[in-house]
Specification:
The protein contains three helices and six strands; from the N terminus they run αβαβαββββ. It is an alpha+beta fold. The chain has one domain: RRM (RNA recognition motif) domain (Alpha-Beta Plaits, 2-Layer Sandwich). The strands form two sheets. It has a four-stranded antiparallel beta sheet with strand order 1-2-6-3. It has a two-stranded antiparallel sheet with strand order 4-5. A hairpin with a 2-residue loop joins strand 4 (66-69) and strand 5. The longest helix is centred in the middle third of the chain and has 12 residues, at 39-50. It is globular, with a radius of gyration of 15 Å.
Length: 99
Amino acid sequence: MNEERLMQVILRPHVSEKTTNVADKHRQVVFAVDKTATKMEISAAVEKLFEVEVEGVQVVNVRGKSKGFGRTPGKRKDWKKAYVKLKEGNDIDFIGGGA
């Protein structure tokens, strides 16, 4: 796969209370990814960027919320979320609180 494309697939980690619970229970990490990214591209990008082994990827298309801005109606952007399951013994530390 094209390395330049792999660097553009993962946009940011998605950190929330729900994703923290998923990480603790199921060894999954959640990322906001490019809307055109495939599971294979997401898996390859995570393995390349974080030097871990990926067991599986689940993808969710998230619809943007409808919000009002004063009198004008508006809508947030749609986005794609990827749940990446890591193999046993692999971990990604976003905080960087190593010893």
